[in-house]
Design goal:
Layout: E1 3-5, E2 8-10, H1 29-35, E3 44-46, E4 53-55, E5 74-79, E6 84-86, E7 95-96, E8 103-108, E9 111-113, E10 116-119, E11 123-135, E12 141-148, E13 151-161, E14 168-179, E15 183-191, E16 199-212
Antiparallel strand pairs: 1-2, 3-4, 5-8, 5-16, 6-16, 7-15, 9-10, 10-15, 11-14, 11-16, 12-13, 12-15
């Protein structure tokens, strides 16, 4: 049976070479598995050789307890046949693709509204996007990017040149984006040419996964 010692929790009375101090993390994974102690309730126990951790419940033995994982924030949204239209686009002016038909996808510790995802948790996120649209003019450069809290991220922009007018095309891209607490992301589009073309957006997909601080 595991016992408490002066420095913490010991895996077993015979475990003298390596105490399983659950607050000190001095037990290796094979020691926990071999001795298989019942970890006291609310005690944090981690493996010194792997860094993985379990939290005791006072009943389950080590081999039964699941490893503890920290829930990570993520967020996604998508629009199918949304018919978002932007007419007379001004050269080098960004237009946000926000529409009530854009729906929430998988959401955890984030929130979504009409194509705008909000982040309470700051950190670096892997963000990817896909958008399908058409333009009413040929040979127009249409640029798509990720807008972070109102500003398009330089390393998250993709340019497509329309081949023919009124033909549907798709653009996709991805980037690692640093987001502050309370920050937002959304898809934004613009034309880098003169001529004030029109675009119609049919489908969108925006996905983000937390990577760490």
């Amino acid at each position: 049976m595991p016992t408490w010692g002066p420095a913490g929790f010991r895996l077993s009375p015979s475990s003298t070479a390596s105490y399983g101090y659950l607050l000190g993390g001095q037990a290796k994974s094979w020691e926990y598995t071999q001795i298989n102690p019942v970890v006291p309730a609310y005690v944090f126990a981690w493996e010194s050789d792997t860094g993985r951790m379990k939290i005791g419940d006072g009943v389950s033995d080590w081999n039964t307890l699941p490893y503890y994982t920290i829930p990570m924030p993520y967020g996604s949204c998508y629009g199918l046949n949304i018919g978002f239209t932007k007419t007379s686009m001004v050269q080098n002016t960004w237009y946000d693709v926000l529409d009530s038909d854009i729906q929430s996808g998988s959401i955890q510790f984030t929130s979504h509204s009409q194509g705008l995802i909000s982040y309470p948790t700051p950190g670096h996120y892997h963000v990817s996007f896909q958008i399908s649209m058409e333009c009413n003019a040929n040979n127009k450069h249409i640029e798509v990017g990720i807008k972070k809290t109102g500003t398009v991220v330089d390393n998250a922009r993709v340019i497509y040149e329309t081949k023919t007018a009124n033909s549907q095309f798709s653009v996709s891209g991805a980037s690692i984006v640093s987001i502050v607490s309370g920050g937002t992301i959304n898809i934004s589009v613009r034309t880098t040419d003169t001529g004030t073309p029109n675009i119609i957006v049919y489908n969108t997909n925006l996905t983000s996964v937390y990577l760490g601080l």
